[in-house]
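Here's what a typical entry looks like (GIY-YIG domain-containing protein):
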Amino acid sequence: MSFVFEGLRTEAQSFLKSTNGRFYVYLLCRQDGRPFYIGKGTNFRALDHEAEARRNHPIGESNPFKCNVIRKILRDGGDVIYRIEKLYDQYEQQQCLEREAELIHQYKRLHEGGCLTNLAGGLGNLSGAAPFSLERHAATLSGEPLDNPERAVLNKFLLSIGPVASIPIKPLSQIKRILPSSPHPSPRSPTVRCAYALIASASAEGLQLVDGVRLSRTFTYGGVRAVIENGVSRDILKAGMAHLVSADAPVDEKYQLSAAHISLLASLAGESNLIERGLL
């Protein structure tokens, strides 16, 4: 694949200044050259993502996976590599959109086995949404349930980590009672579903998974306040996936992870899954 531009942020800024408002498809790449995000934009749009990640304000991050990867690159002393594949005139905006979707399909997103942190597949179609069940697809528009947009936002976020039969995080506003966490009375084994709940919390708050990290039971994604539901929280504790840091209010609880807990998380969700999201 050829590019009209490839370089670092300062060089990209100079190049984009010369595009005169034309559309372009851009690739944000890791140090080894693999893209982790593909987008379409005009002017300095390609640079916005790094600026957002540097602000490190998770409440305003629409895609924490992308921002966490950028932060990891910068934390490791590297630079984001910018690639501009092609420029498009104003009347070619549709071709630009189609090329963006084509490249996302080519490289594939993380939950599809690819390398991209993109949540959408381009063009805003249903096939681009995270892998909702057939039942939910039937009741959605662009991946969003018509009757519950807050739930749709969190579903899409969680399912972009990986498929589960039942979403372990819920809108805080839609749970009548948040109970204090205590280990479930019945035996519980570590599950991928519980692992994804912890990954969602870490991702949304931009936290590294290091020994002693504390993950919040409640967090904000896409403007929606989310909470790890009561039963899942109990299962996490019973299965030995984290230690509880109790609080006066259940919504303020945290889960503290040791190195052993993080190793367990990696075995359940896949170490590469955590690395590619900038968590390890």
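The chain has two domains: 5-125, 134-276.

More examples are in the samples folder.
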